[in-house]
């Protein structure tokens, strides 16, 4: 059985932010800070590497925003396999949490 | 108003990049703003009114547009890149913002990924030069000579320095990446360049002396004929291959300028392979005595 590796915190929050809809890098960064109450930050180097790697894995896709008045901006969108990966990670985290509560 | 510029020729080892960032930040505090970063040469512009924080990234960029946008949207201004893949960024410093605002790697994984990108390349070069040093060491044991010794040492130094750099770069303790003498890289490069230059000069200065001669018979015995000569440019070990066959015993001698005997062989069938001759600078003469037909084939390297 193929077992997926635990995700890094940054990967996890990027996928989480994209679950509600496409977003650009800055939006992901802000939303991550908000969701985590400032505990998790995603700097530019980390963001570029993580999004690049997840595009390679096929978890996210790059699309161009066609909003009028806005400078052409890159948006990231979650793919089906990205959603699966996120679900898997959430159930892994839930399991771990349940296990901890049982101890 | 004319702008004031300053050049810096400081070179930092890759594994001391955190030190470089720190010193760029300090320069900015003193009013010197980096306008062009480089491995050996950086250029600063005087502007005491602003202060920046700097960051460096190391990677091969696949999508420059996406890369720059990812940095721009968090307030990072791209400065320039070096030929070997280091990228410089700056952000206007605002003391009211927390320090994390000036980080570009915010998790252990991505920082490690960056370090490992450099380590992978340096590791390959370090291992290849290490293998070259080993090959030269084996050749040194079999046939020692000065150019080989120098090449072996040059490869060994390069290999040790790079592999040690990989070790520091892999270390997650940033303190280790902040210590380094500013003379290290210039001295290291000078050693590599001088070592390689010395190897080429010494290798070029070695004789390639070859002699081949045949006769089915001789009309009268030849005694100590000054057959040929060769020049040695520096003291070292040299190696002789010799094959001399004759129906009557023949003698071959090598003498130096003062007439001292370096080598003497008498036989009807003389075979020397890689015979080591310790020679100093000067001209050497080959004397040949023969009384019958012969075949001679000799080489000195």
Helix-strand pattern of chain A = HHHEEH
- What class would the helix/strand composition of chain B place it in? alpha+beta
| Head-to-tail CA distance between termini of chain B | 67 Å
Strand count, sense and barrel status of the largest sheet of chain A are: 2 strands, antiparallel
Q: Mind telling me the C-alpha Rg of chain A?
A: 15 Å
Total count of domains of chain A: 1
Structural shape of chain A? globular
The count of strands of chain A amounts to 2
**Sequence of secondary-structure elements of chain B:** EHEEEHEEHHHEEEEEE
**Under the CATH scheme, which class of chain A?**
Mainly Alpha
CATH architecture title of chain A: Orthogonal Bundle
Commentary on this structure:
- The complex is a heterodimer of chains A (103) and B (301).
- Chain A is 56% helix and 10% strand.
- Chain A is mainly alpha-helical and 103 residues long.
- Chain A has a single domain, classed as Winged helix-like DNA-binding domain superfamily/Winged helix DNA-binding domain (Arc Repressor Mutant, subunit A), CATH 1.10.10.
- In chain A, helix 1 (9-18) crosses helix 2 (25-35).
- The longest helix of chain A is centred in the C-terminal third of the chain and has 23 residues, at 80-102.
- The two termini of chain A are 27 Å apart.
- By secondary structure, chain B is of the alpha+beta class.
- Chain B is built from five helices and twelve strands.
- In chain B, a hairpin with a 4-residue loop joins strand 5 and strand 6 (86-92).
- Chain B starts with a strand and ends with a strand.
- Chain B folds into three domains: 5-102, no CATH class; 108-204; 209-300, Jelly Rolls, CATH 2.60.120.
- In chain B, the strands form three sheets. In chain B, strands 7, 8, 9, 10, 11 and 12 form a six-stranded antiparallel beta sheet that branches. Chain B has a three-stranded antiparallel beta sheet with strand order 1-3-2. Chain B has a three-stranded antiparallel beta sheet with strand order 4-6-5.
- At the A-B interface, helix 2 and helix 3 of A face helix 2 and helix 3 of B.
């Amino acid at each position: 059985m193929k077992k997926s590796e635990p995700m890094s915190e940054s990967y996890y929050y990027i996928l989480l932010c994209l679950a509600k809809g496409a977003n650009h890098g800055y939006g992901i960064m802000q939303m991550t800070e908000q969701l985590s109450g400032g505990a998790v930050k995603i700097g530019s180097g980390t963001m570029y590497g993580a999004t690049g790697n997840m595009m390679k894995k096929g978890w996210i896709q790059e699309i161009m925003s066609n909003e009028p008045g806005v400078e052409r901006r890159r948006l990231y969108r979650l793919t089906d396999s990205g959603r699966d990966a996120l679900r898997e990670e959430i159930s892994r985290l839930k399991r771990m949490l349940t296990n901890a509560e049982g101890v | 108003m004319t702008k004031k510029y300053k050049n810096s020729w400081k070179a930092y080892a890759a594994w001391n990049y955190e030190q470089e960032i720190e010193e760029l930040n300090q320069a900015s505090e003193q009013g010197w703003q980096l306008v062009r970063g480089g491995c050996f040469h950086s250029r600063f512009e005087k502007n005491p009114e602003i202060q920046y924080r700097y960051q460096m990234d190391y990677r091969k960029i696949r999508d420059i547009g996406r890369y720059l946008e990812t940095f721009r949207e968090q307030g990072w201004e791209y400065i320039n890149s070096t030929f070997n893949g280091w990228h410089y960024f700056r952000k206007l410093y605002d003391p009211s913002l927390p320090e994390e605002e000036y980080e570009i790697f915010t998790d252990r994984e991505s920082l490690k990924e960056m370090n490992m990108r450099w380590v992978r390349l340096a590791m390959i070069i370090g291992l290849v030069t290490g293998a070259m040093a080993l090959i030269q060491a084996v050749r040194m044991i079999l046939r020692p000579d000065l150019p080989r010794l120098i090449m072996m040492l040059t490869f060994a130094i390069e290999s040790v320095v790079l592999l040690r750099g990989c070790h520091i770069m892999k270390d997650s303790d940033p303190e280790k990446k902040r210590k380094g003498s500013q003379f290290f890289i210039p001295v290291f490069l000078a050693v590599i360049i001088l070592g390689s230059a010395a190897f080429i000069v010494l290798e070029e200065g070695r004789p390639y002396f070859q002699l081949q001669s045949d006769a089915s018979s001789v009309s009268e015995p030849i005694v100590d004929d000054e057959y040929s000569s060769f020049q040695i440019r520096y003291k070292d070990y040299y190696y002789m291959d010799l094959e001399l066959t004759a129906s009557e015993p023949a003698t071959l001698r090598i003498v130096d300028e003062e007439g001292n005997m370096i080598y003497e062989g008498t036989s009807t069938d003389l075979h020397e392979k890689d015979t080591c001759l310790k020679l100093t600078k000067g001209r050497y003469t080959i004397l040949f005595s023969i009384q019958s037909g012969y075949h001679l084939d000799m080489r000195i390297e």
